[in-house]
Protein: 3-oxoacyl-[acyl-carrier protein] reductase
Organism: uncultured Rubrobacteraceae bacterium
Amino acid sequence: MLLKDKNAVIYGAGGSIGGAVAKEFACEGARVFLAGRTRNPLEAVAADISSASGSAEVAVLDALDEEAVDEHARAMASETGSIDVSFNLITRGDVQGIPLIDMKTDDLLHAVVNGFRSNFITARAAARHMVKQGSGVILVLDSGSANGSPMMGSTGPADAATDTLVRNLAAEIGPRGVRVVGIWTAGLPETFSKEKVAAVDSRFQEEAAFRGLIEGLDQMRMTRRSPRLAEVASTATFLASEKAAAITGTFVNVTSGTFSS
C-alpha cells in the first residue's frame, strides 16, 4: 500500500475530485480526514470508505477560516501524531467565458483571493506540523491555465497565484523534509453537470451548448480522451507517497495533453 499508516487531510472532500482522492488514499492505507463546509456529502464519502474497510473522519469547517483550519490541524496532529498529507480541493468561484476586458473587477478577483487564501491557510497549517516532524507532502490542484488560456476569465490569474505558492513554499520548506507539488487538470466529464458548468460560464446554460462542450472535450486533448477522476486520484496518491520522494516544487500535467508543459 502506497500510503500505509499515513494521515491525510483533504479539504473539499465532499466534492467529485475530493471524494475520489479520499477513497483512493484510504484504499492505499491512509487514514483520511475529510473536511468541508457541508456535512452530508462528507458523510457519504466517509461511509463509502468505511464500507471498504478504510478509516475516515469528518470535520465541518470552512477552509477560508484560518482559526478553524489551524485548530483542526492541531487536533489532528495531537490525535494521530502526524500530518503526512494535506490536499486542498475546495472550489474558488471561478468566472469564465468573458473576455478579460469585459470582466468586472470583483468577478476576476473573487477566485484569485479565495483560491490563494484557502491554499495558503491550509498549506501553512499543515506545514507548521510537517516541518516539526521532518516530513510531509502538501498537494494543490488547478487547471494549469496560468500557461495562457483565452476566455478562462479568473481561472488563469487564480491558477498563477497557486502555482507561485507551490514553487516558493517548496523552496522554503524542502530543506526541512516537506514536499509541495501541484497537479494540473481540467475538464473532467465525470464532474460536470449543466448547472455546475453554467455557474462558471453562462455560455453553457443551454442544453445544446452543454452537450457540445462535453462532446468537444476529448478533441482538445493530445490523446483525444479526457482525463478520468480515477487517473487524477491515482496521480495524487503516487505524489503523496514515498515513491515520489524526489518530486517537489513542480506540477504534474494530468490534462491528457490539453497543453504541453
